[in-house]
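Help wanted!
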Amino acid sequence: MKRMVGFGDMMLRLGPPGYLRFGQGNCFMCYYTGAEANVCASLAIMGVETDFVTRLPDNAIAQCAIGELRRLNVGTRHIVFGGDRIGVFYVEKGASQRPSKVIYDRKHTAISTSSPEDFNWKAIFDGAGYFHFTGITPALSEGMPAVVEAACRAAKEAGVVISCDLNYRKNLWTTEQAGKTMGKLLELVDYLIANEEDADKVLGIHAPDSDVIAGKLSRDGYTQVARRLVERFPNIRGIGITLRQSISASDNIWGAMYFTEGTAYFSREYNVHIVDRVGGGDSFAAGLLYGIGTGMSPQDTVEYAAAASCLKHSIELDVNLSTVAEIRQLMAGDGSGRVQR
Amino acid sequence: MKRMVGFGDMMLRLGPPGYLRFGQGNCFMCYYTGAEANVCASLAIMGVETDFVTRLPDNAIAQCAIGELRRLNVGTRHIVFGGDRIGVFYVEKGASQRPSKVIYDRKHTAISTSSPEDFNWKAIFDGAGYFHFTGITPALSEGMPAVVEAACRAAKEAGVVISCDLNYRKNLWTTEQAGKTMGKLLELVDYLIANEEDADKVLGIHAPDSDVIAGKLSRDGYTQVARRLVERFPNIRGIGITLRQSISASDNIWGAMYFTEGTAYFSREYNVHIVDRVGGGDSFAAGLLYGIGTGMSPQDTVEYAAAASCLKHSIELDVNLSTVAEIRQLMAGDGSGRVQR
Amino acid sequence: MKRMVGFGDMMLRLGPPGYLRFGQGNCFMCYYTGAEANVCASLAIMGVETDFVTRLPDNAIAQCAIGELRRLNVGTRHIVFGGDRIGVFYVEKGASQRPSKVIYDRKHTAISTSSPEDFNWKAIFDGAGYFHFTGITPALSEGMPAVVEAACRAAKEAGVVISCDLNYRKNLWTTEQAGKTMGKLLELVDYLIANEEDADKVLGIHAPDSDVIAGKLSRDGYTQVARRLVERFPNIRGIGITLRQSISASDNIWGAMYFTEGTAYFSREYNVHIVDRVGGGDSFAAGLLYGIGTGMSPQDTVEYAAAASCLKHSIELDVNLSTVAEIRQLMAGDGSGRVQR
Amino acid sequence: MKRMVGFGDMMLRLGPPGYLRFGQGNCFMCYYTGAEANVCASLAIMGVETDFVTRLPDNAIAQCAIGELRRLNVGTRHIVFGGDRIGVFYVEKGASQRPSKVIYDRKHTAISTSSPEDFNWKAIFDGAGYFHFTGITPALSEGMPAVVEAACRAAKEAGVVISCDLNYRKNLWTTEQAGKTMGKLLELVDYLIANEEDADKVLGIHAPDSDVIAGKLSRDGYTQVARRLVERFPNIRGIGITLRQSISASDNIWGAMYFTEGTAYFSREYNVHIVDRVGGGDSFAAGLLYGIGTGMSPQDTVEYAAAASCLKHSIELDVNLSTVAEIRQLMAGDGSGRVQR
Amino acid sequence: MKRMVGFGDMMLRLGPPGYLRFGQGNCFMCYYTGAEANVCASLAIMGVETDFVTRLPDNAIAQCAIGELRRLNVGTRHIVFGGDRIGVFYVEKGASQRPSKVIYDRKHTAISTSSPEDFNWKAIFDGAGYFHFTGITPALSEGMPAVVEAACRAAKEAGVVISCDLNYRKNLWTTEQAGKTMGKLLELVDYLIANEEDADKVLGIHAPDSDVIAGKLSRDGYTQVARRLVERFPNIRGIGITLRQSISASDNIWGAMYFTEGTAYFSREYNVHIVDRVGGGDSFAAGLLYGIGTGMSPQDTVEYAAAASCLKHSIELDVNLSTVAEIRQLMAGDGSGRVQR
Amino acid sequence: MKRMVGFGDMMLRLGPPGYLRFGQGNCFMCYYTGAEANVCASLAIMGVETDFVTRLPDNAIAQCAIGELRRLNVGTRHIVFGGDRIGVFYVEKGASQRPSKVIYDRKHTAISTSSPEDFNWKAIFDGAGYFHFTGITPALSEGMPAVVEAACRAAKEAGVVISCDLNYRKNLWTTEQAGKTMGKLLELVDYLIANEEDADKVLGIHAPDSDVIAGKLSRDGYTQVARRLVERFPNIRGIGITLRQSISASDNIWGAMYFTEGTAYFSREYNVHIVDRVGGGDSFAAGLLYGIGTGMSPQDTVEYAAAASCLKHSIELDVNLSTVAEIRQLMAGDGSGRVQR
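Answered by r_m:
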C-alpha cells in the first residue's frame, strides 16, 4: 500500500487513571493524539508508510507529541511550527451506566490559526497514494475549511486517493455549518467513513428504523443511508459505517458495514467489553483503508476493519496498537482471548 | 430543599489499588468517609446546603478528613475536637466470585467517646430542615445511643424532619442490642431507609419468599416488610428499601422500593457492572431525601434514588459524585453509556 | 497433610499495569513466580508445610524471589545457588477479544544448567509426603530430564507421593520431545494434572467432540481421555483436568474433572470475570492435592480444586492467595460476592 | 486579621512526577493554582478568612479547581462563570544545574476575556479588610488592566487595604507595557511585594552591586530600590522584597527585606534544599500580609514572611501548607528538622 | 551469634509518597514495622537467627505484618493472636527546614492489652542467646511494665543476654512514669542503647555542654553520661549512644559512642543526606548487638554500628536492608557511593 | 555534522522507583538503553542524524526498544533481527553513603550471538561521517571482537571517523582479555574516550598521584595518561577523559579533560547533586563528538562535553535529554538553576 498522508489536529489527552472522576486523585494520564494522527499510527503499525501533517507551537510539549508520533513510526517531517498552543482535551472514562465524558480545550491552537500557505502540499503528496482527513479539521476555526480544501485539491492534482471520516463534533460547529462545509468537501472524496449518527447530523440522511440511544440499528436502514450518500456524491467509491449498540459504558456490540458498487457488506458482530473506546472510529478508518489499499475483497475489507476496531476497544488510549497478524487472527474467528505464549 | 444535617463517624478508608489483595503491593489508596458524611456529600453535589457533625481528634489526619468534606462542599463548622483517634477501615475490592472484604478499626474513636453535651444541637439545627443518621452511630459505643437520642430530640424540637438508615453492622453490636436501641430511636424518625437485610436483622421483620444470598428478592415480600414497619412505627412517613441481587462481586442487579401512604413504588432495575459498591446505600439515601425534599412524586423519588445509587456503583470510593443532571439523564432512560462530549 | 516438596523454575514476571500493552508507560509490575512455586505457595496459604527447591544465581534479584517465597510461608532452605541468571517472562494482560501475551526469556537460567548432584534429594524428602513437578521443568534444557528423573526416583525411594502437571509449553520443546520425556517420567507419577489441551499435545490423547478454540468441551470426551491415560499409565491413581471455555480474554467458563478409580467426577461450572488468569492451573493443582492430601471425597476434591482455581482468576498475579475458609465458602455455593465485613 | 480578597487567574498545573522531563513517562501530576489563589490559600491555612475571585468556564475541570480552593478553606462564593477555558501551565522540575522549566498556555482563558462588570466588587469588598492582586492579572489580556483598576478603585472606596505583588512575566507583556500599566495601578497600592528582579524589569529601578544570575545580592542596593520606590509612589506604606541566591536548582539561599517608614528590616538567611520552589513568592506575600494584618513589628513581619516562604520551598506544589505554629517554630530558630512526634 | 528474641509492638506505617504532606494526593505508602521488629529484621539480614514476639489481632492486616516479617527472615512462630487492633502511625517526611511529622494511633492495640501469661517465655527463650526490648513496649499501657518485666525475668533465668533501647516517647508516658518503670527494668539489662536525648528525659542524666536542638554535642559530656549510667546500673556491661547533629531534615551529621569497661569509643562521623531517618536508632541497636554478639572489638563494634545506621538513613522505610558486606565496606572507609556493578 | 553510526547492545533497564531497594515495592521502572544507543540519542537530540545498529530478537519487547529509539529520533533501519533475547540489567539507585547497584543479565543476547555477516556495513556507512562503539561491545561474547573489528575495518574503508569509549566492565571480561582485544581495536580508532579508571584497567596506564576511591584526581597525572596513550596509539587524534570525584552517591564533583595535538584542555568543575548518574559517560562522549564534529575549539569542546554530561546527572534514566541550547547556557556559566519560564 502506498504512503498515506493524514492532516489534522494533535492534542494532549489528559484524564484520571482507571475509573476515577476528574476531581479524584492528583494525577492525569497524558497522551498525544488526534483523529487523523490515530489513523496514521494504526496504519504505521500495520506496516504502511505514513506522514502526519499538522501545525504545532514551538515548545517542549509539542515536541513530546512529535516524539510519540515517531515512536509509532509515523512520519513527522512535514509538521510545521508556529502559533501559540497545542490543544488539550480531558477524558473521564465511564463505566456501567455512567458515560465517559470529554471536555475539549482546542480553540486557538496552532493548527486552527494556520493558513493554506503554511503547508507545501506539492512536496507532501509527492509519491503519496492516500490522503485522509476528518470532519474535525475543517471545524477547528473559520479559516480551516479553506486550508482543508487546498489540501484536497492538491491531493486530487497529485492523483492521490482521498478519504474522509465525517466525525461530527457538535461543540465545534452547528449541523448547518457542518453540512455546508462538508457537503462541498465531500465532492472531492473517494472513500467516506461515518458512524451511526454522522450522516444524519451532517447531511440530514438518517437510517429508518434505527434509534441510536436505544441501541436499535437497522441493516436495511444503513444500506439506504449509503445509497443516498452515493446518489448525492457519485464520486464516492466506498462508504464504511460503524454500527455501535451501546449496552452500557462497559459493554457494546460492535460491527460495521462497507458499501461499494451498489452492495452493502456487513461484518460479524462483536460483544465488546470496553477498556477504552476513544479512537474506535479512527481504528475502523485505518482498517478500512488498509483493506482497500491492499486490495482485499469488500467482505474481507469490512471484516478486517471491524476486527481491527473491535481490538482497539480492548486497548488503552487512542491508538490501535494491533498488528496485522493480531487483527487477522480475530478476523479468522479466534476471539476466545486464550493466552498467546 | 432546606439545609440537611448529618451526624456520625468519619473514618480513614484504606485499601490496595485495583483488585489487589491486602498483602500485595506497598501502597493503600486513602479516603475519608462515613455513612452520614457520604449522604451529606452526595446532597451537597446535588446543590443542597449541608452540615456534617462529628467529633474528631485534633491532629493532621483529622484535618485531611475535614478538608475533604470542604472540597465536597459539606459544611464543617459544627465539627468538634477531642478524643484520641480517627477510625480506620480497610477495604479489599472483590471481583467475580471473590467478595470484597472490609476490616473495621473504629473503636475508641473521638466520636465514640463523645457525650451529648459535646454538641450544641440548638445552634446546629437553627434553620435546618433535615437531620440524617444511621444505625451505625448509636452502635459505636455504649454511650452513643444517648448522644443520638439527644440529637433526635433536639431535631424534633426544632421541627426538623428526621431520616434514618438502619445500616446494621454485625461487628458493632448484636441484633438484640440493635433491635432495642433502634426500636426506641425509630419512634422519632420520619423517613426510614434500609437494605434488603436490615429490617430482618434489626427488627426481625423479614421478607417472605426472598433469599438474599441466592439473590432472590420478592416485590410482595418487601411490600409486606414496609407495611409491618409502618404498623410498628406509625410515625414513619416513608420507607426506602434498596433491592440488590448479587450475581457476583462484579455484577449486581440493582433497584429500589419506596413505600409511602400505604403504597409501594418500585424503580426500574439496573444491571450494574461494579466499580466500587461501598457507599451504594448512602447514595440511595441521599437520592431518596433529595426526591422527598424537592417534592418529587413517590415514583419519581424512587426512580431518582435508584438511578443515583446505580451511578454510584460506577464511581470509585464512597461518595456519589453524580450531579442532578447526570442522575436525571439516567432516570430518563439513557443508560447506554455513550460518550458525553 | 504431610509436607509437600515442589521443584522447578522461579522467574521474574514483568508486565505493564492494568490493560496497557508492553510499549505503553514506563513501568512494569514485577513479581517472582514459577509453576511449582505457585503450587507450594497456594498450599502454604492453606496451612500445609511446603518446601520449594530450585537453583538460583547468587544475586540480589534472586534474593527478592526467595524473600517472596518466605513471605508466602514457603520453605526455602533447600534452594541452592549457582549459575548466571534468573529467568524473566513478560506478561501483557488481554481483555475482551485481545488475548493475553506471554514472552519467555528463560533459557540459560540457573536451574536449566543444574545437574542431578546439585540437589540433596535424600535430605529434601526426609519426612516429606508429596513431591510436585510440572512438564515445564524437564523442558528447560537438555540436561533437565535427568535432573527431574533423579528427583522422582529419590521421591519414590523415600515413599513420597508424586504429582505432575503436564503443562505443555510449545516454545520449550516439541510435542515429540515432550511425549518421549514425559512418557517416561509419568511412569513414576501417582497423580496427574492437565488442562484441556495437554494430553493431546504431549501424549496424543485427545477428547472427541471437543474444540478448545471454539470453547466446546465434552464431558464424555474428557472421561475417555482419562481412561486412556490410566490404561497407558496404570500407576496413576488420580487425574485432574481443568475445563476452560474461553468466551473472551475477560470472561471464561471454568470447571474441572477428577478421575479416580474408574470414575469421573465433575465440578460445578463458574462464570468467571477474569482479573488475572496466569497461575489458574497451578491453583487447581494445589486445590486437588489439598483435597487428596486431607482425605476429601473425590467429588469434594474436584469441587474444592475448582473453587480454589475459580477464585484465583479474581486475584492479581500468579499465586492463589485464597484461604481454605474462602474456598470452602465458594464451594458451599456462595459465589454472590457480597461484601464480607 | 480581617477578610482578605484575592483576584486573579486560576490554572491547571501539569508536570511529570519527580525529576522526570516532560517527555518521560505517561502521567502528569495535576494541581489547580494561581498566584493570588496561593496567597489566599496560605492565609486561610493561617486562619484568616479569605475569598478568591476569578472567572472560570462552566465545566468539570473548573469545578475541580473550585473544589481544591474549598478544600484549602478559601471562599469561592464570588467566583463567576463564563468564557471558554481554564489556563494550563506545564512545570518540569529542575535539579542541580538543570533549571526548572515552565510553559504557559494561559491565553483566551475565562478571566482574560472578562470585563469589569462581571464582578460585583461592592458586594465582594463588603466587610473585607484586604485586597491582593499581582502583576500577572493585568497582563493577561488587553482588557485586564481596566478590570483590575476597577477592582482597586472599588477596594479604595470600601476602605480596603491594597497589596500588590509585581510578579513580572516576560511572556505576557513587555517591560514597557508592564511599566506603564503597573505604574498607574501602583498609585492605588498600600503594600508592595517584589522579588529581586521585578522592580528592575517593571519600573527600571535596579539594585546597585547586585547580579541576580551570579547570585550576588547587596543589602544596601535593595534598600536603595525600596527608597526609590517609595519616592515614586508615596502612597506605598511597606515594601517586601524576597532575596534569592540561586546556588543551583537544588539549593538556594533565601531571605527577605521589609522596608517601612524609611527603615529596611532584613530577615535571617536560610540554606534551602528545594522540594518545589513554585509559589515561593506567593507564600512570602501571604506571610508578609499576615504579619502586617496581625500587627507584628516590622522585624517580626519580615522574619515571619521569610520563615513561611522558606518552608514553602520544602513543600510540593504551589501552596504553602504551613501552619502558624510551624512557621513560628522556624522563626524561633528551630530549623534542625528534628522529627515531630 | 546465637538466636535473638525481640518483643514489642508491630504497627502499620502510613504516609504520603515522597515529600508530600498528609493532605496531598490520594494514597499512602504502607509498611509494617516496630522498634524491636526492626532490630530483629536488621539482624536477620545480617544472618542472625531471630524471633519476634508480639500479640496481634486475628485479621488480614495483621497477616500482612507477619508476612513482611517472614519475608525479612524474622521468625514469627511465637506471635500470639488476640485483641482488637494493630496500631497505626502516620509519617510525613520532612525536608530542609520542615521537620518530619509522626502521628501515633497505637492505643488499645492487641499487645497493649496483653498479659504476662499470653507468652510462653520458657519456650521462647529455649536456645536463645539475646533478648531485646525498647522503652516503648512498657509504655504502651498500664499493664505492659509487668509483661515486660516477666519477659526479662524469664530471659535472665534462661541465661539470655538482655539489651534495651531507652527510646523515650513523650506521647506515651511522662518522664516521671518512664523514669520509674525503666529504672526498675534497667536493673535487669546487660546492654543499653540510647540516643542523645533519652538518658536526660528518662533518667535525668544529661550531657554537659551539649544542646541537641542547636546540634551541639560534646564527646566529654556523653562519656560522663555513660559513666553515670554505669554507676547507677552496675549490671550494665555496655552502652551505645547515637550522636545526631541535625543540620536540617535533609542533612544530618551522624556518629556514635560505645562505652564499655570504663572506656568510651567513638565512631567516625558521617555527613548523611537523608532518604528516611525513621528506624535509624533501631539499625544502630542491631549493629551494636551484632558487633557484641560476634565478638568484635569495642572500636569495631561502634564503627560497625555507626556504619550500619548511617546506611539506614539512605534506605526508605524503617528497616535497615544493609548486608554485613555493605556495612563492612563503608566501615572500611568507602563512602564514595561509586556504582557497584 | 555528518551522520553518526553507533553499534552495540540494547538492553531493558529495570529498577525500583526513587531510592527503594530491589526488594521494596512491586514495580520496576523500565527503559531501553545501551551505551552506544545513548550516544546516538544524545546526538540526535542535538540535531545530528544518527543510526543505531544492533541485533535484537523478533519479539514485542525488542519492538519497545526500537520504538524508544525512534521516539528519540535515532535511526533504526539497520537493526537486524534474530537470536533469542534482549539483555536485561537491574539498577538500584544509591543515595548518600549507599552506592548504586547494577546487576547485569546480558549473556546469550541477540547481539552477543551475532556474526560479522549479519550486518551490511557497506550500506550502513554509506554517507556516514562517524562510527562509535565502546569497550562493552567486543566484551559481550567470544565472537564479538571479530564483529566489531569487521565494523571498524568497514568504517575505515568508507572514510568514516571512528570513536571508542573504553568502558571497561569487569563482569564481562578480565583486564587481560580487555587489554588484548582493545589494544588491537584501538589501532583503528581516531578519538578515544575513557573515565578515570578505564585506561588503568584496560591498558595498564594509570594516573600518578590519583586515588579514585578517595576521590583524589591529579590534572598532571591524567595529562600523562593521555600522553602515554598517544605514544602507544599514534593514530589517536583526541582523547577525552571524564574526571569524577565521588563525594557520595548523592554528590559528585564532575569535570573533564580533552587532550589533542599534545595539549590537555580541562573543563570547569561542577558540584553535581545527582538525580541519575547512569549514562553520564555516554553523554560526555556525545558532547565531545558534537564539539569535534561541529568544529569547536578544543577548549570549547571539553567545556561543551562537560556541561552536557553535568546536565545528564540531573536527568532520570540513561539518555541525556538536553538540547544544544540548554548545554550552551550552562557552558556559558549559568548553572544557577533559575526557573525558565
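OP: Thanks! One thing I noticed: The radius of gyration of chain E is 19 Å.
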